[in-house]
Amino acid sequence: MNIENLIRRNIINLKPYTSARSQNLDGILLDANENAIGSTFETDLAKDLNRYPDPYQLKLRKSIGEMIGVNYKNILCGVGSDELIDLLIRIFCSPSKDKAIILEPTYGMYKVACDINEIETIAVPLNDNFQIDFQSLNENFSSEIKLIFICSPNNPTGNLINAEDIEKIVRSYNAMIIVDEAYIDFCEEGSAANLIKKYENIAILRTFSKAWGLAGARLGYCISSEKVISFLLKVKAPYNINKLTEQVVLEAIKNCRKKDEIKNIIISERDRVYKELKNFDKIYAIYPSDANFILFKINNSKLILKRLLEKGIVARDRSSQLNLENSIRVTIGTKEQNDLFLTELKKAADELCK
Ligand SMILES: *Cc1c(COP(=O)(O)O)cnc(C)c1O
């Protein structure tokens, strides 16, 4: 397949904004209306804030590329993966014409981002194991579908989507397949990233918001073919990644052992909380997790959430999502937080689930 056939004509023909910082970064810079006297605020972490950041994000892309063993030309950073979701929609889908498939229940942003761009979303249910239902996918596919969103591990169900199924979709459908791997650090072996070597119509999304503990810095990245990355580069705001975020993330990558330490703590806590919940007889369904949260079903879930909130514990109501009636998603916290959650959940359930 030729990926350009999937891309909007106006994007292919687009002459991108040429920013003042596109060509040379050294010299007497009197070309971008910056403040040459200096900035009104400097920190040790980020200097030269009076100058715009690198529109090509070269330091970040190279550093991430080295870390994951991918050429930097196959990587682009966004303000969280949420920005990349929006950019991919805008590259592939013409408003009020093209459509996208979403495999439900899943992350809510795909539909919101499509709605904002006037792209109709077709909800295809995952099967009972929250895996791909190919019959349903086939029935719902049409030539108007330009994007298929796959979240793996899936939020809020927590499971990886089978790697062979993802490859089968990439191979069989004339559409761009977006695999959101926001939680992949919790189960690295499940990544679909190696598929970018074989196919142009797949984009992997990752983020520093979860395992890296940098949600406040807002950095996500896309791994895809050079072609797709070149279009993302063309469409994104020239200076989307700010220097403060760049510095923080470069430091975090240098120190990536810390991420693994934290990740391992979260995984062992997750497995402990899972066992506790699994043994709790008031919970009538619970789903194994490859991520940093657990989804379970319990009668009167809304009242239970309300009771937890009164105790200062905030968990997420997922009961309005497809096939998830009475479900609660709880993020794994510190050991003390998890213990408190378990204690209060049991108290609330003993009272509210007779
Ligand atoms: C949290 C989450 C994100 C958000 O990522 P940001 O990089 O913080 O924008 C993306 N996808 C899924 C599935 C998530 O759960």
Brief write-up:
This protein has helices spanning about 10, 60-70, 80-90, 110-115, 135-140, 165-170, 225-235, 245-255, 255-280, 300-310, 335-350; strands spanning about 75-80, 100-105, 120-125, 145-150, 175-180, 200-205, 220-225, 285, 295-300, 315, 325-330. The protein has about 350 residues and is α/β, with parallel strands linked by helices. Strand 2, helix 4 (about 110-115) and strand 3 (about 120-125) form a beta-alpha-beta unit.
Describe what this molecule looks like in 3D.
The chain contains eleven helices and eleven strands. The chain has helices at 9-12, 58-68, 80-92, 109-116, 134-140, 163-172, 226-235, 243-254, 256-278, 301-310, 335-352, and strands at 75-78, 99-104, 120-125, 145-151, 176-180, 202-207, 220-223, 283-287, 293-298, 316-317, 327-331. The mean pLDDT is 96. The strands form two sheets. The chain has a seven-stranded mixed β-sheet, sandwiched between helices. Strands 8-9-11-10 form a four-stranded antiparallel β-sheet, with helices on one face. The chain is globular and about 75 Å long. With 354 residues, it is of the alpha/beta class. Strand 2 (99-104), helix 4 and strand 3 (120-125) form a beta-alpha-beta unit. Pyridoxal-5'-phosphate is lined by residues 80-82, 107, 151, 155, 180, 182, 207, 209, 215, 220.
| Helical content (DSSP H or I, runs of 4+) | 25-40%
Largest sheet: 7 strands, mixed
Query: Secondary-structure element order, as H and E?
Result: HHEHEHEHEHEEEHHHEEHEEH
Radius of gyration: 22 Å
The tally of domains stands at 2
Oligomer: single chain
CATH architecture of the largest domain: 3-Layer(aba) Sandwich
Strand content: 15-25%
CATH topology descriptor of the largest domain: Aspartate Aminotransferase, domain 2
CATH class placement of the largest domain: Alpha Beta
User: Could you report the average pLDDT, rounded to the nearest whole number?
Assistant: 96
Low-confidence runs of at least 5 consecutive residues: none
Class from secondary-structure proportions: alpha/beta
As laid out across the biggest beta sheet, the strand order is 1-7-6-5-4-2-3
